[in-house]
């Protein structure tokens, strides 16, 4: 992409495309002969399809084909026995309500939609259970260990402590629901050459999945995904609906576009699983933690297992000699979950950080003082030093900014008419990762630099961050630097997830820039030029239109000696109306301790976005299922409430902005996850401080406040 | 032939409806032949001939003549027929605001507006906001304040933001938040969007 209209070095490099409507998302590519797919979905929750009548649909105007388990094209992976991924159209089994069972393809979207309504299925129904709490309580229901049990010191030591807290915390299903609807354009051409326009967090992952399912060489598959309208984790895998579309294109020999409905976004592209957690904390009367027990149960599906890091934080976040954790997954008859921003850590942090606040209250301590008192110097889980950790400074800066001194430790102290004001704090933490990636750099005699990598940008500003890294290293103006991504033919990079893109790809950009600089220096020396000569002059003198280099980059061994995490501290002020039970988040200060900040403007936006997501998690978001039918009943934006403008106050973001000496050459740690992890607990803690009511079941809706 | 009732478009009822409408509307055809064709199951093919309606509208100061089925929304007409994909589909139910356009200067969820109801109207989409290469002040302000992340809700936010000021609903941050609440941003760029609107409002540029 080109950089146009540059006014500020910090502006998003693709901003101009996004504000003019020129940014093209997957569904916006025009292909000759493009057709439209619409899914037919199961109307029962569990059972077998016994018949599928597609005659009326096939006769409807404009319909080209109806593809289902009855007539699907060859997909060799699915012809094999066993294996856990759902084999779409290779089974007549229904695993959840709303599962795709056929795709109708027509020459317009409206005709495909109408024809899909004409497909009639009959089923042999089976008993089902979509109720996670019911499955958990049922001794006969299947349960699986989600992570090995962890124990340090004495198990359940909290039970013998001077001061004890033992509480149960409940989270409902939450859904990603990025604004862009999911789907894909698939174009299967003769000789098994496939081009797709995908909504994906990993073009290489999409390429590999399609290659595996259809057993064709990966290089036959071109995946394009330049602009992605949000992901939050849901685009970290290739979903059955995408494979269905590729099958449809293979079947009819034309490109097929599928864009699923908002209602389908709730059922077939994953969710943050429901969770029930128990946290036990023990402390001395002086406020030293002596025992932490964190036990978690997470919802999963019957056809694929899903696990995440729900109990990770308890193992290292606080200084404590006795810690034990357990994590179990409980399959129910729903679509399989997938990591949602902050993934399991956000789930776990709600429980742990609520319990920490409860303990501080039990000790009659300021929760900030209690956290500082129990802040660890080293990682007790791994017995390693932290590569960098500035959490005490973060506590101090955030507390000053929010006006923590106005907080009263006694709940319900700040009252003005029906409004009660409270302050809450919580911590978020996530692995600071660095993976392996390749970047190609092309330095041109016209003064420009092109960088290429098969990474993605789902919104954080990948291209902007990479451009700024190159800008600093090469001293090339940002409007002369282009970063190309979202194309599987570019040098390989991992999927965008786990807050690792800037660290991973940025390191490769760093290596490419250093290599280009040294090549220029050599050329300068060889042509008797000053070592500080401008690269344009050096290239021209050597009659070179450009030079290029590709570098693969990954962390060295030194990192093994350190424990590496990004941290966030969320400070929240809430106002709770004691007549209506309404909670308004009135002030937010989020402090990020995530190493060096490369792109301040987009980094700030990412922290703000995490806080907004946290408001939804804390106050409004809950996917509700009618367990009699196994169906979501609020699967739309009118009934499932994501935060809107009116829910969100001004948000202050503070960065510690100190480079981490270990993680990567930039000293930058990830921050996509920490922006959200812990936030919901800060709100719950603030609600308690405002009202004295401890809400342990999210979301904190008015009914719970009034009942509490 | 104005039936936007979805029940009219289901299976047999659609077929019966077509028989009747064929008799009424197909002056140039032999009604009995059309009815016979319907009975033989080729009625759905005939539907194509009768269901399209001529439509004239202006989009971003350019006149368009189209022939559309009555069930096509303004949003799908813009995206799929006119290839103006800056207007986004986020829910198709008027719940998210991603499809916001101006119809005769008023902000409208284009997913809730059937294309054929826009005969003779002037539509402005995100593609029509800038004056050539000169960005609209709201577009500039969104870039300056980073009023987006993934960018998918952005065209709708910008169209709504311009209308919000024109309507006189941008007199305070609280008022802006209230009148922008029909435009969802899942990335959570709200505070930056409000900053952008405040700046444009205070800048006093003619919108």
Automatic annotation (TrEMBL), chain A:
Limits of the Aldehyde oxidase/xanthine dehydrogenase a/b hammerhead domain: 20-127
Zinc-finger in keyword set: no
InterPro entries: Ald_Oxase/Xan_DH_a/b, Ald_Oxase/Xan_DH_a/b_sf, Ald_Oxase/xanthine_DH-like, AldOxase/xan_DH_MoCoBD1, AldOxase/xan_DH_MoCoBD2, AldOxase/xan_DH_Mopterin-bd_sf
Keyword annotations of the record: Molybdenum, Oxidoreductase
Record's protein name: Xanthine dehydrogenase family protein molybdopterin-binding subunit
Record organism: Pedobacter punctiformis
UniProtKB/TrEMBL annotation, chain B:
Domain of life: Bacteria
Domain 2Fe-2S ferredoxin-type: 53-129
Keywords: Iron, Metal-binding, Oxidoreductase
Keyword Metal-binding: yes
InterPro entries assigned to the protein according to its UniProt record, in alphabetical order: 2Fe-2S-bd, 2Fe-2S-bd_dom_sf, 2Fe-2S_ferredoxin-like_sf, 2Fe-2S_ferredoxin-type, 2Fe2S_fd_BS, Aldehyde_Oxdr_Iron-Sulfur, Beta-grasp_dom_sf, TAT_signal
Protein name (Swiss-Prot/TrEMBL): (2Fe-2S)-binding protein
Organism: Pedobacter punctiformis
Organism lineage: Bacteria, Pseudomonadati, Bacteroidota, Sphingobacteriia, Sphingobacteriales
């Amino acid at each position: 992409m080109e950089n146009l209209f540059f006014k500020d070095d910090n502006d998003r490099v693709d901003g101009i495309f996004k504000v003019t409507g020129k940014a093209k998302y997957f569904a916006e590519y025009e292909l000759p002969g493009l057709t439209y797919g619409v899914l037919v979905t199961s109307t029962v929750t569990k059972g077998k399809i016994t018949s599928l009548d597609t005659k009326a649909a096939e006769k409807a105007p404009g319909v080209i084909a109806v593809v289902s388990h009855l007539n699907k094209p060859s997909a060799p992976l699915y012809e094999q026995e066993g294996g856990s991924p759902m084999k779409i159209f290779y089974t007549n089994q229904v695993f959840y309500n709303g599962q795709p069972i056929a795709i109708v393809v027509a020459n317009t979207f409206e005709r495909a939609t109408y024809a899909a309504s004409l497909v009639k299925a009959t089923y042999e129904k089976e008993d089902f259970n979509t109720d996670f709490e019911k499955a958990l309580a049922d001794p006969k229901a299947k349960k699986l260990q989600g992570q090995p049990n962890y124990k340090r010191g004495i198990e359940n030591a909290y039970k013998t402590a001077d001061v004890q807290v033992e509480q149960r915390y409940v989270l409902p299903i939450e859904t990603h629901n990025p604004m862009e609807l999911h789907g894909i354009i698939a174009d299967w051409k003769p000789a098994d050459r496939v081009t797709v326009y995908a909504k994906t967090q990993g073009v290489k992952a999409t390429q590999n999945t399609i290659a595996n399912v259809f057993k064709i060489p990966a290089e036959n598959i071109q995946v394009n995904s330049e602009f992605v309208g949000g992901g939050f984790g849901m685009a970290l895998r290739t979903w059955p609906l995408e494979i269905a579309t590729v099958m449809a294109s293979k079947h009819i020999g034309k490109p097929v576009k599928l864009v699923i409905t908002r209602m389908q976004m709730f059922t077939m592209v994953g969710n943050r699983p429901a969770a029930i957690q128990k946290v036990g904390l023990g402390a001395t009367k002086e406020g030293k933690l002596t025992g932490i027990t964190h036990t978690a149960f997470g919802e999963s599906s019957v056809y694929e297992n899903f696990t995440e890091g729900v109990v990770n934080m308890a193992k290292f976040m606080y200084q404590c000699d006795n810690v034990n954790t357990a994590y179990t997954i409980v399959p129910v008859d729903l679509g399989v979950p997938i990591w949602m921003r902050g993934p399991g850590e956000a789930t776990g942090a709600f429980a742990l950080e609520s319990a920490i606040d409860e303990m501080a209250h039990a000790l009659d301590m300021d929760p900030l003082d209690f956290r500082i008192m129990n802040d660890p110097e080293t990682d007790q889980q791994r017995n390693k030093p932290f590569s960098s950790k500035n959490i005490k400074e973060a506590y101090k800066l955030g507390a000053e900014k929010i006006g923590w001194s106005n907080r009263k430790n006694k709940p319900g102290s700040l009252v003005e008419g029906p409004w009660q004001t409270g302050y809450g704090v919580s911590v978020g933490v996530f692995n600071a990762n660095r993976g392996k990636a390749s970047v190609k750099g092309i330095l041109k005699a016209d003064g420009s630099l092109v960088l290429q990598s098969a990474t993605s940008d789902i919104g954080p500003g990948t291209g902007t961050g990479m451009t700024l890294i190159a800008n600093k290293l090469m001293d090339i103006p940002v409007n002369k630097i282009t970063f190309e991504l979202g194309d599987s033919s570019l040098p390989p990079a991992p999927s965008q997830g786990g807050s690792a893109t800037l660290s991973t790809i940025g390191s490769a950009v760093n290596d490419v820039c250093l290599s280009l600089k040294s090549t220029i220096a050599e050329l300068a020396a060889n042509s008797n030029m000053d070592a500080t000569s401008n690269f344009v002059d050096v290239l021209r003198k050597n009659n070179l239109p450009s030079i290029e280099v590709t570098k693969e980059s990954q962390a060295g061994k030194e990192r093994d000696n350190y424990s590496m995490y990004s941290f966030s501290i969320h400070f929240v002020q809430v106002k709770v109306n004691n007549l209506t039970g309404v909670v308004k988040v009135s002030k937010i200060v989020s402090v990020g301790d995530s190493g060096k900040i490369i792109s301040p403007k987009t980094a700030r936006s990412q922290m703000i976005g995490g806080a907004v997501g946290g408001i939804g998690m804390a106050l409004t978001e809950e996917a509700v299922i009618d367990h009699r039918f196994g169906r979501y009943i609020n699967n739309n934006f009118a009934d499932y409430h994501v935060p809107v403008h009116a829910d969100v106050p001004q948000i202050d973001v503070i960065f510690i902005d100190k480079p981490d000496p270990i993680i990567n050459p930039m000293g930058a740690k990830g921050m996509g996850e920490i922006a959200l992890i812990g936030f919901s607990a800060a709100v719950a803690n603030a609600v308690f401080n405002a009202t004295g009511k401890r809400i342990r079941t999210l979301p904190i809706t008015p009914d719970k406040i009034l009942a509490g | 032939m104005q039936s936007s009732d979805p029940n009219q478009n289901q299976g047999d009822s659609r077929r019966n409806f077509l028989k009747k409408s064929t008799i009424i509307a197909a002056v140039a055809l032999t009604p009995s032949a059309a009815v016979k064709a319907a009975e033989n199951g080729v009625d759905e093919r005939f539907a194509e001939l009768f269901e399209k309606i001529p439509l004239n509208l202006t989009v971003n100061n350019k006149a368009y003549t189209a022939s559309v089925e009555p069930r096509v929304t303004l949003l799908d007409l813009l995206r799929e027929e006119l290839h103006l994909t800056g207007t986004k589909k986020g829910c198709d139910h008027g719940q998210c605001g991603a499809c916001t356009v101006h119809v005769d200067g008023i902000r409208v969820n284009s997913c809730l507006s059937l294309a054929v109801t826009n005969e003779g109207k002037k539509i402005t989409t995100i593609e029509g906001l800038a004056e050539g290469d000169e960005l609209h002040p709201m577009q500039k302000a969104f870039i300056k304040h980073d009023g987006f992340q993934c960018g998918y809700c952005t065209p709708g936010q910008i169209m709504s933001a311009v209308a919000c000021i024109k309507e006189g609903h941008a007199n305070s941050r609280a008022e802006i938040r209230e009148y922008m609440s029909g435009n969802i941003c899942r990335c959570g760029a709200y505070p930056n969007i409000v900053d952008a609107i405040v700046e444009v409002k205070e800048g006093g540029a003619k919108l």
